[in-house]
Specification:
The complex is a heterodimer.
Chain A lengths: L3 E2 L4 E5 L4 E3 L2 E2 L7 E6 L5 E7 L5 E3 L5 E5 L4 E6 L8 E9 L3 E4 L3 E6 L1
Parallel strand pairs in A: 2-12
Antiparallel strand pairs in A: 1-4, 3-9, 5-6, 5-10, 7-8, 8-9, 10-11, 10-12
Chain B lengths: L2 E5 L2 E4 L5 E8 L5 E7 L5 E9 L2 E4 L6 E6 L2 E6 L8 E8 L8 E2 L3 E5 L1
Parallel strand pairs in B: 2-11
Antiparallel strand pairs in B: 1-3, 3-8, 4-5, 4-9, 5-6, 7-8, 9-10, 9-11
Classes of the chains: A mainly beta, B mainly beta.
Chain lengths: 112, 113
């Protein structure tokens, strides 16, 4: 079964600093990978997805992620954090043709 | 464009009462449909998924059931709620295939008292 591991359940950064949220996947075959953002008491919004077209994927709100097969990683980055980026972020992987498996989430706090 | 509706937004139910949460999708045909439950610190747990009318796959044996009476309607039910059923329930849909990702409703906060 597929799985993703998100390192760090809580991450704090200063406003304007680099955001780095870590995700490692378990598959030996490059899967489809996704990052989502969730604001309090809301559903999840798709930030970006990796579908093997390009290893560096750009998403909404200035986020991007790089697929590294050698490290089985798909870390999410943003060059400069904004207060509005404070939220919970989930990494997800597809399993088969129907299922999406999610990590446990990383809560990002942005300090003024 | 496609939209997903999930209701109610919040629900407080006594132990032993029934449950029915409904989700509908507009603007697409034959979507894959999902119910997830979210608990603090545990991410999203896939409860059920459906690839067509009447086709339900259960991921976790529990006190809940799901039904898909119409192509774009997905219902989560329970005959008798337990305290442990409290949580944030999310409905989602995806196009056929696994490369597009899932698209989520706004969720239902269920508190069983």
């Amino acid at each position: 079964a597929q799985s993703v591991t998100q390192l760090g359940s809580h991450v704090s950064v200063s406003e304007g600093a680099l955001v780095l949220l870590r995700c490692n996947y378990s598959s030996s075959v490059p899967p489809y990978l996704f990052w989502y953002v969730q604001y309090p008491n809301q559903g999840l919004q798709l930030l970006l997805k990796y579908t093997s077209a390009a290893t560096l994927v750009k998403g909404i709100n200035g986020f991007e992620a790089e697929f590294k097969k050698s490290e089985t990683s798909f870390h999410l980055t943003k060059p400069s954090a904004h207060m509005s980026d404070a939220a919970e972020y989930f990494c997800a992987v597809s399993e088969g043709t129907y299922k999406y498996i999610f990590g446990t989430g990383t809560r990002l706090k942005v300090l003024a | 464009s496609q939209t997903i509706h999930q209701w109610p937004a919040t629900l407080v139910q006594p132990v032993g009462s029934p449950l029915s949460l409904e989700c509908t999708v507009e603007g697409t045909s034959n979507p894959n449909l999902y119910w997830y439950r979210q608990a603090a610190g545990r991410g999203l747990q896939l409860l059920f998924y459906s690839v067509g009318i009447g086709q339900i796959s259960s991921e976790v044996p529990q006190n809940l059931s799901a039904s898909r009476p119409q192509d774009r309607q997905f219902i989560l039910s329970s005959k008798k709620l337990l305290l442990s059923d409290s949580g944030f329930y999310l409905c989602a849909w995806s196009p056929p295939g696994a490369s597009n990702g899932a698209f989520f409703g706004q969720g239902t906060r269920l508190t069983v008292v």
